[in-house]
């Protein structure tokens, strides 16, 4: 069996290790990185056939890692993962060289299908996509984070009453 070298870059250590083990069980030889800096370093030496990269990392953007993977392994198939999906970042990921863009939490089989999709072939839709309530929750959380955890500014940008936003934020995230 031909080696399938996979670089995984994510700053969530638990998720990184779990995904690495799952991909190894599926036949991949994994290299793990927990930051942009480490991802770029490992992209130089890993000679990856595939890469799975988180968009937002503690020390920067996963797009920098995508560009490094593309530079050192031009034929690598790259999938971008993110908990904060939006059209602009999806377009930026594809322009940087990613072949697909998946929202977290992504199933291992969905990631493998995206990595293995060829040419014009589109991967099958996910078995368990995020609910509309979960997508809304993720969007609110992202705007809140971008507003430096300022509730009033977040409410203004989302065009909603601050108390309504506070009630939403007080609840557990939907599944």
TrEMBL record:
Name this protein carries in UniProt: DNA-binding response regulator
4-aspartylphosphate PTM sites in chain numbering: 54
Keywords annotated in UniProt: DNA-binding, Phosphoprotein, Transcription, Transcription regulation, Two-component regulatory system
InterPro entries recorded: ActR_PrrA_rreg, Bact_response_regulator, CheY-like_superfamily, HTH_Fis, Sig_transdc_resp-reg_receiver
Keyword check for Cell division: no
Stretches assigned to the Response regulatory domain: 5-119
Molecular function per GO: DNA binding
Pfam hit, one: Response_reg
Keyword DNA-binding carried by entry: yes
PROSITE patterns referenced in this protein's UniProt entry, alphabetically: RESPONSE_REGULATORY
